[in-house]
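User: Here's a chain of 266 residues. Predict its fold as tokens.
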Amino acid sequence: MVTTCFQDLENLKKTALSVLTQNYPIEWIVIDADSGPETTIFLGSLESEKHSIIWVSEKDDGIYAGMNKGFLKSSGDIVLFLNAGDLLATRYIIESVVEDYLTVKWLWSVALAVRVNSDGTPRSVWEYLSPELGGLALGTRTFCHQATFYTRDLLNKFMPYDNSNLAADHLLNIKCFKHAHPRMLTFVSTYFLDGGISSKRPFSASMLDLRRIRKQEDLLLFNSYILDKIVSVFVILGVRVGGIIWDTLRRTSRKFAGAASRKTFQ
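Assistant: Prediction complete.
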């Protein structure tokens, strides 16, 4: 398991508690980008009889550079990238994933994930009804990397992450998908913190990254850069607008349900 961190000690502590209480023995690699003495003191204080803890605190070139470094320092057969602030859903998650792997022998697998706000309240469930390469390449069916479990054999083919691309995790998943379809796990493995780097970027920048990835991987819509640009904008906007409408309807229904409940008890 690889965790990157930069000046986020409180969230790192939460992740540490989640990781180190797993009932299955794991190797946890923490790559801190020189956050300062408080973080290094905390990392130095971590101890576990069951788990192996390896940490580094030094300046690097960004989150994907840290993830690449963590992967190179890891030795496990299955690798999970879990950011500071992300939590495993229960203490039995790694055990469940390993048992499934030993039964099915997949190259990679994707579990369900719950997006949470900074206060820990659930926001939405990240699930995959019918993952397809087209939807993955377009950006309408992305995988949550905090709930994606890769075998080392697979990552050895496609790592390192492209540190020049903030959609590098998306690019990795597309390469993996073209090689082998993932095993879709039916349980929630992770509560991941909303508000990461990619979510704060301008929409146009994310679109440009995805289009570059499709061009690089020979997945342009209609094999045309111009048509890809036109269609993808409309499709992604439709998905985003649909999501906004759904969230609005859900909040409205909860509001009315709450009002009706209060009226009943008056």
